[in-house]
Amino acid sequence: MTVKELRETVKSLLTEGKVDLVIGWGKGTMPGTSTPVFIDTAEKADSLIFDSTCRNNLSVYFTKDRRALAKDDKKIGVLVKGCDSRSLVLNITEKQIDREKVTIIGVPCNGVVDMKKVVGKVDGKEILEFTDDSKKVTVKGREFELTFPLDEVISDSCLTCVRRDAVEYDLFIGEAREPGSDENAYAEVEEFEKLDSEERWERMKQEYSACIRCYACRNVCPSCYCNVCFVDQNDPQWIGKSPEITDTMIFHIIRNLHVAGRCVECGACERACPMDIKLLLLNRKVAKEVRDRFGSITGTGLENKPAMADFKEDENQDFIMG
Amino acid sequence: MSEWQPKILAVLCNWCSYAGADLAGVSRMQYPPNIRVVRVPCSGRVDPLFILKGLQSGYDGVLVSGCHPGDCHYISGNYVARRRFAVLKPLLEFVGIEPDRVQFSWISAGEGERFAEVVSKVTEDIKKIGPAKRLVKGA
Predict the structure, then answer these.
(1) B57 touches chain A (CB under 8 A)
(2) Does the distance separating the beta carbons of B84 and A246 come in below 8 Å?
(3) Cα four-point dihedral sign B16, B22, B26, B29
(4) Which terminus of chain B, N or C, has less C-beta within 10 A?
(5) Residue of chain B whose alpha carbon sits nearest to that of A206
(6) If DSSP states are collapsed to H, E and C, what string results for A213-247?
(7) Measured between alpha carbons, how far is A222 from A36 in angstroms, rounded to an integer?
(8) H-helix or E-strand containing B50?
(9) Nearest CB partner across the interface for B85, out of A246, A307, A319
């Protein structure tokens, strides 16, 4: 895929009237960043880019307060990586988006860059220029230039990803690859499971005591779209507002249960976290349970019901007292 | 000093487990007085928040009980609840809550004896792990 192909495709979609608006990524103001762009005329399509800086999960624009976007009569096109497409599929199965009104345009993803890792590579020096292709990243600053493999600096969520290309799309720019095997996808979860209970609690406490309860993880999540979130309710007030560890833990446990069978592990929460908390560990534990117990992988099929809204009569109930 | 007594929150569904508790009572069966019962219309009504809120506000353990699979008054409430608990329980264990702290069971309206057994077992289990410390507010 080249950026030219991408722009031409979007242009022709707009001029042929197949879509009224395309949501994509444009160049950000800082090196190594991108920003969501809304393309409604063919001329604007030249601002589109796609590379490893395109972190945002754009399906978030179909839920939350922007739900109106999906309910308008407008036909909307959206650029998706593998994880983004799973978010869209989930939202379609949950009847938040009308499949007919959305044109899904897949782009081949090789993982998105975690800028914290890049900054680590250059010992915290200021980066003035960032370029990448599908395999390498090159950064330039004052008196230095460094090239390294893309795989060394992609987000943790991308390292474990086996569905890099869209699972559902109307058109794909380039060639969509088949999903890999997710047999060993949850290695770090299994590692944590091996620790004893006391140790796990201590580690959790340490990790989550950094939480300032800004709720950025919730706000950025394409699966979190309740009109009133339980943390914002004050009658009854379910959890305290202070960053006390018990309230913080309960917030995170419940957040994970609310997205159980709905989380696509895109890592948006972790990237949004200002305190660098490893949020995905809990999400991925839940995803693993959902996969192993119910055989369900979120957002991989339009006809699949979300796992927690479904059941089978003869399910494993080993956790229930005999 | 007498032995430490745990406080246990028992969330029981109206149609089976609550009636089971009632039967245990009218049949004068003996079981530990450690549970505080909350009656809910169905085990499907049990939000994991209820359980966590219980642990946070000073209960040493939580028992949730509903109708046996297939017997739900609302046809499928307990099936949905079962999926929810199937994820909740491993997740709680994962963050370091003791496995026996939160327990689930199916008790029908005719199983007064079983109700007494379950309450005895849960009380014993929680006595073994001691007072709740993790997730407790102000601890």
Answers:
(1) no
(2) no
(3) positive
(4) N
(5) B95
(6) CCCHHHHHCCCCCCCCCCCCCCCCCCCCCCCCHHH
(7) 15
(8) helix B48-56
(9) A319
Query: What residues in A contact B134, CB-CB < 8 Å?
Result: 201
pLDDT digits (tens, 9 = 90+) for A222-256: 999 988 899 999 888 888 888 889 999 999 999 99
Quick one: tokens of B105?
């069971």
Nearest to A246 by CA among B130, B94, B99, B53: B53
Sorting pLDDT into bands at 50, 70 and 90, what band is B57? very high
| Residues 84-123 (B) with a CB less than 8 A from some CB of A | 84-99, 103-106, 118, 121-122
Asked if the interface predicted TM-score (ipTM) of this complex is over 0.90, the answer is: yes
HSE at residue B60, side-chain half, CA atoms within 13 A, is 17
Domain boundaries, chain A: 3-114+154-309, 124-153
CATH hierarchy code of domain B8-129: 3.40.50
Q: What is the pLDDT of residues A11-69, one digit of tens each?
A: 999 999 999 999 999 999 999 999 999 999 999 999 999 999 999 999 998 887 666 66
Three state DSSP letters for chain A: CCHHHHHHHHHHHHHCCCCCEEEEEEECCCCCCEEEEEECCCHHHHHEECCCCCCCCHHHHHCHHHHHHHHCCCCEEEEECHHHHHHHHHHHHCCCCCHHHEEEEECCCCCCECHHHHHHHCCCCCCCEEEECCCEEEEEECCEEEEEEHHHCECHHHHCCCCCCCCCCCEECCCCCCCCCCCCCCHHHHHHHCCCHHHHHHHHHHHHCCCCCCCHHHHHCCCCCCCCCCCCCCCCCCCCCCCCHHHHHHHHHHHHHHCCCCCCCCCHHHHHCCCCCCCHHHHHHHHHHHHHHHCCCCCCCCCCCCHHHCCCCCCCCCCECC
Per domain, the residue ranges of chain B are 8-129
Q: Which of B69, B89, B98 sits opposite A197 (nearest CB)?
A: B98
